[in-house]
Amino acid sequence: MRKFPLIILGLALSPLLQSEELSLIFRDDFSKGSEAWTPTDAKAWKITEVDGNPAFEILGGSKYNPPHRSPVNIAIREGGFVGDFVFTARVQTKQTSRGHRDMCVVFGYQDPANFYYVHLGEKADPHSNQIFLVNEAPRIAISEQASDGTPWKDGTWHHVKIVRTVATGLIEIYFDDMEKPTHVAHDKTFTWGRIGIGTFDDMGLWDDVELRGVAVEPPVAVLSGGHPDSKGLTFTKWTPGFQVPDPVAISFDPQGRAYVTQTRRRKANDLDIRENTDWIPNDLSFTSAEDKEAFYRAQFTPGNSALNAKRVKDLNGDGIHDVRDLTALSERIHLIEDTDGDGVADSTKVFAEQLDHLIGGVAGGVLWHEGEVYACPVPELVKFRDTTGDGVADEKEVVVSGFGIHLAYAGHDMHGLFVGPDGRIYWSIGDKGIRVKTPEGLDYRFPHQGGLMRCEPDGTNFEVFAHGLRNIQEVSFDQFGNFFGVDNDADFEGEKERLVFIENYSDLGWRSHWQYLRNDYNPWNDDLMHKPWYEDQPRWYTPTIANYENGPAGFKFNPGTGLSPEYENYFFLTSAPNGQQWAFRVEPEGDSWAMRDDHRIGDGIPLVGLQFSPDGALCGVDWGGGYPMNEKGAIW
Fold it and tell me: Which domains does the chain have, with CATH numbers?
C-alpha cells in the first residue's frame, strides 16, 4: 500500500484534540436509516428499535472473509475522509460474557487491507482489547497503553471516544470515562481515512455516532493509479475549482462539454418502499404508472397532511404535507466545460430542469446525441434542445412514457442512456416496472421486472430489448455488439451481484415481488437463480456468467481510442458503495461467456456513472462521497 503522509502535512501543524474545535463531519442517530453506511455483510446488520429509539444493530453471522485477519462484521461510513478527528458514539454489546466479547471502531480506513481498529475486548491479551494496525497483512497490536479489559455490562449503553492527531501519530481511546484514555498508541502509517463501526465477530448495537475532524481529500494516486494492477491508469479531478452537486450520470458532446445529471428527488419526493412498508400490498397491485399516480393523488391530500408527514417533508414550505410536495424538487442537468483549454473545467451552469413529475424518479441517465440532450427520470424518457445556443435548454419533448409502476427500492430507476450499434437509443430500468403503449399499437407489460429498452431517437420503434433485470445501472456492448451488464443483488443471504449477458428477447429471471419473500419459498434463493449455471438450475431464463462486486453502477466498454493498449477490449465497472473501480474482459466459453483478467484499478472515491470523453479519457462522476445528498461531487 502506497502511503501519502505529505498530502495532509499542512493540516497537522496545530494538533486539535478538543472536539469543539473541530468541524462536524457527520452526526447519525439512524433515524433516517443506514444508507450512509456500507456493511461488509449487509445481511448481518439492521435498523432496530430500542426503547422507541432507532439503532444500528449487528446481528452476527457475517459471511465476509477479509483479505487479512481482522474484523469480519464492520460498516464503513461513506465519505467522511478525515485526518485529525474526534469520534464519539454510544454502543451496547448483545453478546454473552466471554473473554473476547468485543465491539470495534475502525479508523484511517483506506480499503479492506489497510486501516486501524480498536478492539474493545472484555479481557486483554495480545489479540484482544488492543489498538491494531492492518497494513496488507494480518492485524498487529500497536498499543503502548491498554486497560486490563473493557468492562461491558449486559443491556447497558456505553460511551466510546477516539481522538486522533496526525502530526504526532497520537491515537487515544476512551470508554465511559471521557477524561482518561484506556488505550494509547502512536502511529503514522495512515494519515487519513474513513470511519467504521462494528465488531470482530459478535453482536451489538450502535447509536448517536458523531465525527468531528479535519476533512481530507484522498490523494489522487489512491483513487486509481496507486493500485498495483492499474496498468498506469490515474484519475485526476477535472472539476477542482467547484462542486458538481450530487451527480449521477455523465455524457459529452463533440466539443468535450459535459452534461451531468444532479439528483435532488432521491428519497425526498421519489419515495422508497422500505420507508413505506405498509404500502407494499398497494404497490404490488399497480399495473401502470397511471395507477401509482392515482394512488399518490388519493393519499397525499391536505386532509392527510399529518399522516403524510412521515412520508414526505414539507418541501414547498406551505405547512402541509401533500401532493404538491411531490413536485417541489426537480432533477437537473448541468453543463460543464473547460473554456480556456487548460485541461480542467472552469464553467458550470444549469442546462435543464423541468424534471419534476409527480411520480418522477432519479435522473439516472443522460445522453447528448445529434444536438439533443436526453434524460430518463421515471416515468419518462425526455429530450431537451438549446435552440438559441446560450447553453440553456429552451425546448423539452417527452419521447416515451410509462415507466416506474412501483415505489420499489430507491435507485431502481431508469439509467444508462447510450447509442447502440444500430444507432438506436438504449437505456435500462430497475424493477419498478414497465407498461408502455406505443403509437404503433403495441402494449409492453412487464409490471414486476426491470428491462433494457430501445427506440429511435424520435421515440418510434420502441421495444423492450430484454427483461427480468433487477437493477442494472448501466449496460454496455463489446466490439461485436454483444450486450452485458452487472446487476445488483437483492440483499439476500448468500447472494451476490451478477455479470449477465443481455440478448434480445432474453429474460434474466428476476421478479420484484420476490424481494419481500423472506421466510417463504422464494425461487430466487431456493433455486439458486443468482448463481452461475449449474446442472439442476431452472432453464427458463438466461443464467449468470459470474458473481461479482458490490454495488455496480457505472459500466463502459473501452472504445480503444485513448487508454493504454493493455486495456484493449476491457470493460470498466464502478463499485460505488466501496469506492472502487474494476476492469475485466469477457470471452466466449462454450455456448456462453466467461469473465477474464478481472482486477481492481482504483480505490477511495464512490464513482457512479462512467463515460468516455471525446479525447478517449475514461471519466466518472463522484456523488460527493456517498449516496446521501450533500450538494457535493466532482468529475474525475
Answer: 5-218 (2.60.120.560), 247-519+548-583+596-626 (2.120.10.30)
